[in-house]
Input
Amino acid sequence: MARIRICPRCKQPKLRPATNVSGWLAPEMFECSECKYVGRFYIEIDPEDYELEGEAKSKKE
Output
């Protein structure tokens, strides 16, 4: 099963590689299109867990 990479700052699945050579020539870096985070760290979860978290947030609001 594929896992989702989530931004550690805004908790949105909007991460993409920051550079073209990320992970090959340079350390793997990611950029968030939502909050503009750039870094090596990310949260990786199952798609089912992400959906459950979204439902829990909507119930609190």
Summary: Residues 4-60 form one domain. The chain has a mean pLDDT of 83. The chain is about 25% helix and 25% strand. Residues 3 and 34 are 19 Å apart (CA to CA).
